[in-house]
Structures are given as C-alpha cells and as structure tokens.
Design goal:
Number of strands: 10
Low-confidence stretches: none
Structural class: alpha/beta
Distance between the termini: 10 Å
Bound molecules: 2-amino-2-deoxy-6-O-phosphono-alpha-D-glucopyranose
Mean pLDDT: 95
CATH class: Alpha Beta
Largest sheet: 7 strands, parallel
Strand order of the largest sheet: 1-10-9-6-2-3-5
Helix content: 25-40%
Oligomer: single chain
Radius of gyration: 17 Å
Strand content: 15-25%
Shape: globular
Number of helices: 8
C-alpha cells in the first residue's frame, strides 16, 4: 500500500489521471486475459471525489488525444429501485461526469442493474461479466465517511461478492445532496463486494477534504476489519491512496509517507 499526500485537490486529480492514462495507453499485448482488440478495463467510482479526475481525463482526451475507444468500464455500485435513466442513478452519473465527455463506447460501460426483477441473479451476472472481461485493471475508489468503499457498509464481509446492501443513515444523509429530499435516498443498493473489489489489479483510493480524514486514518492505519470496509485495501498487493493534506490530517505516519514519496526511485511508478 502506498500513501501519497499531495498538495491540493488538483494534484490528486492529476495523479489519479496519470495512473489511469498509463493503463489506458499500455500495450494490450502486455495484458494477458484481455479479449482481442480491447485495451484497459477500468473500474469507475461515483460520488463527488473522482469527478475532478474524470474532468482531467476528459481534458487529456480533448487536448492530448487520450483515447478510451477500446476500453471497457465497470461501475462499483447502483441504487436499488431507481430506473437507469433517473438523474440520481449511478448509470446516469457516470455518463454525465465522464462517459459523455470522452470516446468511451456507451455500450462498453457496465453497471449493476438496480432495477432488475431478480436482484440476486443480477448480482451474480455482474460478477461474471467482470470476470469475463478479464478482470479490472485499475479500480478507482472513493471512501465514505463511515469507511465504506463501493457501498460496502461497516460489517460487510471481507470476501463478499456483488450483492444487496442496506445503507447506513450516515451514508443516506451524506448522499442526500444528490436528491430533491433526504427521504428520496434509497435504502438499498447493489454493490460489488469487498472480495470483488479485491480482485482488481490496482486499487486507487482517492480522498480529499477534512470530512474524510478519520475514515482514511481508520482505513490505512487502523486494523483490517469489516468495521472499516476500506481497510481491506491493506491486504491488496497493489493499492495506492491519493490524499490531499486535509484528508491526510489524521494520519500518524504522515511525515514518513511524504518522505517515502519524495524519495521514490525514479524508475518506480505508482
Ligand atoms: C457513495 C459511493 C462511493 C463513494 C462515496 C463517497 O456512497 N457509493 O463509491 O466513494 O459515496 O462519495 P463522495 O466522493 O461524494 O464523498
């Protein structure tokens, strides 16, 4: 796990975009398990935090010719009971904030269907679709104030697969800003499990702002525990945590993380 403390949100967005760009531009031949003709499989998160990263990637698409045309993408989660086309669905969110601004094929962007008749079957189908795509190369993650990733709330089993979860009141309150009224926030969601997320080849957790500081500290310096689902990134072989100063403000070893990053060997990328 590599913890990188950066000077401001823009630097976080640029660094996350650098990681995604490197994967997107990588030679497909270097990635076994990939279907012929396709390049990166991206894992996309919703929420406000990664929006700046998506904006930066869209800028690189417009100005630097970064193409997503042969990529596929999978979302982490979706609300249950909202139609795909509802403005607050994550299906819509990722299109408004990323897909519509780049050349990623809309049909190659997948998300769990929270409106499926058979939710349990949909959950299994979603895990199978990720596996059939050869797995996720780089998974962007945000973090909830209660330490959730995707919508894996505290108590989520560490090996869980895509399934239904019930949101905590805290998460419903945190997400109410996207809805007309707090009561409109759904109670149930379909989310990739912690075991599903753990299979992505590279996890990139992004957090900015003081409201995330305690959750970040619990995730990276606390025990590995279902009580803080984001702590599962501690046993991933390739996890990068990108923080601004405010999100890093509760870390005990902040000085060490700064020192390690400042002295990173030039040949070693994130
Ligand atoms: C939602 C999403 C998470 C996201 C979290 C934090 O609950 N399911 O994937 O990380 O919100 O969102 P924000 O980045 O808006 O703080």
């Amino acid at each position: 796990m590599e913890i990188v403390i950066l000077d401001g949100v823009d630097a976080v967005d640029r660094t996350a975009a650098d990681i995604v760009e490197r994967v997107v531009r990588a030679d497909p031949a270097a990635n076994p398990g990939r279907s012929a003709g396709s390049t990166a499989v991206l894992g996309l998160a919703t929420g406000s935090t990664p929006v700046g990263t998506y904006r930066e990637l869209a800028r690189r698409h417009r100005e630097d010719g970064l193409s997503f045309a042969r990529c596929r993408a999978f979302l982490l989660d979706e609300y249950i009971g909202l139609s795909k086309t509802a403005e607050q669905s994550y299906f819509s969110f990722i299109r408004q904030n990323f897909v519509d601004h780049v050349d990623l094929d809309d049909a190659a962007v997948f998300s769990p269907d929270g409106d499926a008749d058979d939710i349990a079957a949909e959950a299994q189908r979603y895990d199978a679709a990720i596996a059939a795509a050869g797995g996720i190369d780089v998974q962007i993650l945000g973090i909830g104030t209660d330490g959730h990733i995707g919508f894996n709330e505290p108590g989520s089993s560490l090996r869980s697969r895509t399934r239904v979860k019930t949101l905590t009141e805290q998460t419903r309150v945190d997400n109410a800003r996207f809805f007309d009224s707090p009561e409109d926030v759904p109670h149930h969601v379909l989310t990739q499990g912690l075991g599903t997320i753990d299979e992505a080849r590279h996890l990139v957790l992004i957090a900015t702002g003081e409201s995330k500081a305690d959750a970040v500290a619990a995730a990276v310096e606390g025990p590995l525990t279902a009580f803080c689902p984001a702590s599962t990134i501690q046993w991933h072989p390739h996890a990068t945590v990108l923080l601004d100063e405010a999100a890093a403000s509760s870390l005990a070893l902040a000085e060490y993380y700064r020192y390690a990053y400042a002295n990173k060997p030039r040949w070693q990328h994130l």
